[in-house]
Amino acid sequence: EESLSVQSDTESIKExxxxxxxxxxxxxxxxxIKEENKELSDKLSKIKVDYLRLLSLSSNTDSAASKxxxxxxxxxxxxxxxxxxMTRPDYQPLVDNKRIIEKLQERITLMNMELMTEREHxxxxxxxIEDHLKEIEEKRQREKEEQxxxxxxxxxxxxxxxxxxxxxxxxxxxxxxxxxxLPTVLDKAYELMxxxxxxxxxxxxxxxxxxxxxxxxxxxxxxxxQNLTIGQIMDVIRCYxxxxxxxxxxxxxxxxxxxxx
Length: 261
Hints:
- This protein has helices spanning 2-56, 62-87, 92-153, 182-192, 222-225, 230-237, and strands at residues 154-162, 169-177, 204-210, 215-220, 242-248.
- The protein is an alpha+beta fold.
- The protein has two domains: 2-126, no CATH class; 153-248, Roll (Ubiquitin-like (UB roll)).
- Strands 2-1-5-3-4 form a five-stranded mixed sheet.
- Helix 1 packs antiparallel against helix 2 and helix 1 packs antiparallel against helix 3 (92-153).
- Keywords: Coiled coil.
- Residues 23-50, 119-149 form a coiled coil.
């Protein structure tokens, strides 16, 4: 990229070389005019001195004085001619210089327009990037807030179960929304422990479990709690860290009722 930039700058300089040469010529011509003006000014000063000297020559003859006056008059006319020529609009060096200046001004105007266009383009790109970053940040913030809200509504359950086939105590983790009804939570626990097809869900229930003492504390039978959400059940038993046991029974057995306290 750096080499391309250098190449671009070199090409730009080459394009500007003719204008630079014309500007150099213009400066040279201005200097020449300045020198000519200085020469005319010096010449007028000399004429003025000669004229004053003429007035002081009281001993000179009239013919000598007349000759000097004629020479001075000629030089004055010559100076006037050059000064008038230099101030005329059609004075060729001045016309050429004006043309060069106009060309340079046009080029400068064009370059200014190009710079303004490029600046506006860069500003637009900058604004687009800033808007995109702002949009990303707003989206990230929304997702974060949604995640926090979601987590506040989630209930994390530590679930235990004696598997009917292996007889081993299994432990797993179940996350449910606090507004889910007990039958829905039971379905998810049943699926998580993979009890099908070994035992039907009708012979399963959830029980509040004390893992340290290996005791069943509160049974949640559907005939009593089926219309309550898991959040409401947690409020009823005043427990916000749920350890549940997915209890099963044999076909001809009935569940024993457990009550807290």
